[in-house]
Amino acid sequence: MAETKKVGSVAYATRDSSYFAKRGLIRHANVWHLWALGVGAVISGHFSGWNGGLLQGGWGGMFIATIVIGVMYLGLTFAIAEMSPALPHTGAAYSFARTAMGPWGGFLTGLAENVEYVLTPAVIVFFIGSYLTGIFGTPDSFQPVWWVLAYIVFVGLNVWGVALSFRVTLVVTLLALACLLVFWISAIPNMDFSRWALNIGPGGVELPEGNGPFLPNGIIGIFYALPFAVWLFLAVEQLPLAAEESMDPKRDMPRGIIAAFLTLVVSAFAILTLNPSVAGIGSFALGSSGEPLLDGFKAIYGDGIAKGLALVAVLGLIASFHTIIFAQGRQIFSLSRAGYFPTLLSVTHDSRKTPHIAMVAGALLGLAVILSVWFLAGEENRGSVIGFTLLNMAVFGAMLSYIMQGISFILLRQNQPNMDRPFRNPFGVPGAALTVIIAAVTIYFQITGDAAYRAGILGVAIWFAVFIAYFALVGRHKLILSPEEEFALEHKA
Prior knowledge:
The protein is mostly helical.
């Protein structure tokens, strides 16, 4: 019979070695796999999503917003680069917050990430289905079939084995970057920055001759562009979820995440500068486009090869879909292994040692949400609810987790100064504090900027209420001494 040990407001049930034997992972990832995991998770945001900020702040407002959000992610990635090798556990954000703020802090941080990692692939698969519908000419009602097929294929690849999963991650990420590189090279001789990138005037009107102001909506436009600039970096923080599958997390984790962030910085400013500058498009038209990169290719090469270009554009979506499914599985696995979620979810495959139940459960939950919206929202509202409200729920969850991770870093620096830190963040507490401040400001302008954001926040509140009720009534009485929990207790959190 298992013994129970009460610690503060939670209780731990002891488990023998057989419990963890059924929840084993295999180390395989090197620094390049980790780099691809970080870049691949984000890269679809360079294909579409970011461009809505052009109508909010004009090109100049979006440019400054990207710098501000880049500073936020700079502070976040370097904080994670210090915390992940010091706490090399699959739990990542949950693990950092658990050690810094106790079980409730760890659970709430993990829950915020759970919203992000379950809903983001659900929305990405909606866009994949939209592209495939146009390419193959299937009826709109067929879209749910594309979603199910995509989940089956990419959850299957992730379940098949960690070696295959990382190999696919590396290949699709390199292909997506190659697609962007081809566009950048193609755009340079076809750009006219002043005429097209600066064709938005005050109030968001189109200027037919271009040459408009740098900040057409003034300083406030920068702030309303912040949530859109997040798309250029969103989900790079998932990389530490591979800590227990990394060959040398203490050396490779900091290198992988910093290299991924620097790659994304180059790509972000390249796409922000070149895409709106291509002759025949401009910031005004691009601001409301669902496929800005595809529109850029069409402007350069014509509509005649549109279907071929659409297939190319799907690469970015596939790269992010595949890598975030990986993160989703590990995130659910870590919370389940520690007892915050039902422990059945953390059982790994007998031979392949992948968290197959966690990945299938996350996929089914994401599919259930998107299918519910599809059938309940009505034909006219489906696209906006899935493409904006659900995705805004994911962004809101991410911002909350960034705030919690920044606070975790600050608390660990203050309360655990002697903790072994293989990598030390050169930006320290000020960098983490900037991350917290910018994330909080971004949330504020999410709330005030668009009704879709407010609806998304209501959805996150419901998500939190359901899982917090489960944890308060059941989970907190059945925690397990997983690696994350043991580390936290050893450091008296």
